[in-house]
Design brief:
heterodimer, A: alpha/beta, D-Maltodextrin-Binding Protein, domain 2, 2 domains, globular, B: mainly alpha, two-stranded antiparallel sheet, 2 strands, Extracellular solute-binding protein (chain A), signal (chain A), Bact_solute-bd_prot1 (chain A), SBP (chain A)
């Protein structure tokens, strides 16, 4: 029999632990504003998702330039693997130990950070200057503004579209890139006739499959509807169900690689990007990062010479504009406790003409800065810039816009749509239910 | 008790207790606390929702399905691995050529990291992978199927991988148990004229009982926690569709991936309670006969 003393001891320990847990959860109040004065010694901490030698060298160059013009300031960077970044950042922000500058994906996540008072308002700062706004364009700024507060500085835009192998298109006798969904269906039949897998799809990661739905929604729904839904999360407009119908119609052509459900997007030669890189599939719907990913997966790790790009085809009956684009918009935020002037000046420097030019060389991502756009070499980059400049509307990827919760449900529902687990009405019902839980 | 004994206890047990409280007890309590909130993970949780998260979990078909998959894995692991492991252990307990090599080989899968096993199998079992290719080449192309995505097949593929991976551990445990059975008993049985099988049934199996019960306990707990194999092979989204989701993959998908940390914490609490109840019941009713009479009660 256990002596009584032990038992009461256990209770004390338990009570103490509960108290400690509650205290721990209560101690993380918002950070205080910085009292940094110019000339003070300061270490500016920066978290990015940059990888690769060229990318890191680019950042080091910017950091050196910044240190040279700011006395007593050191830039200390941590480059974190992309998938790890969000979790690490979340912990750092909550514990009040956030980096001064960090990668900002925008959308629902930025909204959550803003609501928790974790972001610095950059309105009127060096990176909000009229000159930079003119050079980088108003739209990227709009996307990072919430309730009139600029919460991040834009750095890049990664428009999505269909990447294809020119050789395989030629082999199948396709002379022109598809302009409409009917053209696309035609091309799919021709490719299948030639024994070529028409479309590579990394269904295991869900978002590559979901991109097909996003882009159909971009063509089916008007810009006004899309914008309104970003705020209201109301999916009652029929265009959302129509977009799901379009996905079903596409899937009925069986254009995807065998076993797409267990194919990942970017890992190894058997991934969807790998299939394109090795001429095992003719097309893939992806953001502008695709050439870089494909390059690493070709047999000799050189850029795919016959890689081409065309904008997502138009849906004839849709309400969306044929020039509307969709793509990821990346930027950088400052955390609430960071010195505002210093932080904003760093962001402005990242976006200078010179650094935007070298950014293209290092990452292959088309520059936002108008004056830097003349460095672009590849045909597809030129096409993308042209498409961007012509675009009447540039939307972010829908899962980013809707926030993680609805976004995750949407991505999953699209995969279920492709496997026949759900139907278009079921998809709309699923995201509507998720939005209500928000 | 003299202060010296207390000092010794504090010195020896202190670090362990601190680590255990900090990294096990506190997180469990924190999860319990977060489970009452609708919390996106940014800032401190403010939106108290009471038991709503638990209500949603227990009415969500996806969770109930995941729970069912865990139950299936639990039962099938016991049925498939137990008898096979005992059989192999009996075989390997006899003197024969190459015995040591086989003992090592059968343990190898257990040593390989889950992630490597998962990636290896997902490449082999992919519709265009090695397994279907081999079937095709030996004229059994009709048997080729989508091993990982077909909901009727996928859970069996998972079961096969689990058995392959963990049977080595069961065999080693059983072998150790067999070593502990004195030869004299078997000799006595042989002198009494008992056949080999009779000896195994009446002597070896009952004496192997404690080992089997401990193995079953570990297997049950492991089955309730299956995560890494599923997560690597099927990823964040496909496990649901393929019918291989588990409570743990559900927790990650609906907690971390969807940025619903309050909800995810509530799922964690549910998994914790299920495991706790099963573990306590098992300890109380099955393991008791092994521990009874042993030196488990306070000596002081």
């Amino acid at each position: 029999m256990m002596p009584r003393r032990y038992r009461s001891g256990t209770q004390v320990v338990l009570a103490g632990t509960v108290a400690a847990a509650l205290a721990l959860s209560a101690c993380s109040t918002g950070p205080e504003a910085s009292d940094y004065q110019e000339g003070d010694p300061y270490t500016l901490t920066v978290w990015t998702n940059y990888t690769g030698e060229a990318g890191l060298a680019w950042f080091d160059g910017v950091a050196e330039e910044f240190e040279a013009t700011h006395e007593n300031v050191t830039v200390e960077a941590q480059h974190i693997q992309n998938e790890e970044l969000d979790g690490k950042l979340q912990t750092a922000l909550n514990s009040g130990d956030a980096p001064d500058v960090f990668l900002q994906r925008g959308g629902g996540k930025m909204r959550d950070m803003a609501e928790a008072n974790q972001l610095l308002d950059l309105t009127g700062s060096a990176v909000d200057s009229a000159e930079l706004r003119e050079k980088l364009g108003d739209a990227p700024y709009e996307a990072l503004t919430l309730d009139g507060r600029l919460l991040a500085a834009p750095q890049l835009v990664q428009p999505g579209g269909i990447w294809y192998s020119k050789d395989l298109f030629r082999q199948a006798g396709i002379t022109e890139t598809p302009k409409t969904v009917d053209d696309l269906a035609d091309a799919i039949q021709k490719l299948k006739g030639a024994g070529i897998t028409p479309i590579a799809l990394g269904g295991k990661d869900a978002w590559p499959a979901a991109h097909w739905y996003y882009f159909f929604a971009l063509r089916e729904c008007s810009a006004d509807t899309l914008e309104a839904t970003n705020e209201s999360l109301d999916f009652s407009d029929p265009c959302y169900e129509n977009a799901a119908e379009d996905v079903v119609d596409l899937a009925a052509l069986e254009p995807f690689n065998e076993g797409f459900l267990n194919t990942s997007a970017q890992q190894g030669a058997s991934s969807s990007a790998g299939l394109l890189a090795n001429h095992k599939a003719a097309m893939e719907l992806m953001g502008s990062w695709e050439p870089g990913v494909v390059k690493d997966l070709t047999p000799n790790q050189e850029p795919l010479p016959d890689l081409g790009w065309f904008p997502f085809p138009q849906v004839q009956s849709g309400h969306g504009d044929a020039t509307a684009l969709m793509g990821g918009k990346g930027g950088f935020s400052c955390s609430a406790g960071a010195p505002k002037t210093l932080c904003a000046e760093f962001l402005a420097l990242m976006n200078s003409e010179k650094n935007q030019e070298s950014f293209y060389t290092a990452f292959g991502s088309i520059p936002l800065h108008v004056d830097a756009q003349d460095v672009v070499r590849n045909d597809y980059d030129k096409q993308m810039i042209e498409a961007l400049n012509e675009a009447t509307y540039v939307s972010d990827f829908l899962d980013t816009n809707y926030g993680q919760q609805v976004g995750t449900v949407l991505n999953q529902a699209v995969v279920e749509l492709l496997t026949g687990e759900t139907d278009p009405a079921g998809l709309v019902a699923a995201i509507t239910a998720a939005a209500e839980r928000e | 008790m003299p202060w010296r004994r207390w000092a010794e206890i504090a010195l020896l047990a202190g670090p362990g207790v601190v680590v255990f409280v900090t990294f096990v007890i506190v997180p469990v309590l924190m999860a319990g606390y977060y489970g009452f909130f609708d919390w996106s993970g940014y800032g401190i949780p403010t939106e108290f929702v009471g038991l709503r998260n638990y209500e949603l979990i227990l009415t969500d078909n996806a969770f109930l399905e995941a729970m069912w998959h865990n139950g299936f894995i639990l039962v099938m692991s016991l049925i498939l691995q137990g008898p096979a492991a005992i059989g192999i252990a009996l075989l390997l307990n006899r003197k024969m050529r190459g015995r040591d090599l086989i003992r090592v080989l059968i343990f190898v899968p257990y040593v390989i990291s889950e992630v490597i096993v998962a990636i290896g199998f997902s490449l082999m079992l992919h519709p265009t992978g090695a397994v279907n290719d081999v079937l095709d080449r030996i004229g059994l192309g009709g048997l080729a199927m989508d091993w990982l995505a077909d909901p009727d097949v996928a859970i069996w593929s998972l079961m096969l991988i689990l058995v392959w991976k963990y049977i080595g551990f069961a065999v080693i445990l059983m072998l150790a148990g067999l070593q502990g059975i004195p030869d004299e008993l078997r000799e006595a049985a042989a002198i009494d004229g008992a056949s080999y099988w009779r000896t195994q049934w009446h002597i070896t199996l009952p004496l192997l009982g404690p080992t089997i019960r401990i193995w079953a306990f570990l297997s049950i707990i492991g089955s309730l926690q299956v995560f890494d194999l599923v997560y690597v092979i099927w990823g964040q989204y496909v496990a649901d569709i393929a019918g291989t989701s588990t409570m743990a993959t559900y927790m990650v998908a609906n907690g971390r991936i969807s940025g619903e940390y309050g909800y995810g914490s509530a799922v964690a609490v549910v998994i914790f309670l299920i495991s706790l109840v099963i573990a306590l019941v098992y300890q109380r009713y099955v393991l008791r006969r092994d521990t009874e009479g042993a030196l488990t009660e306070g000596v002081a």
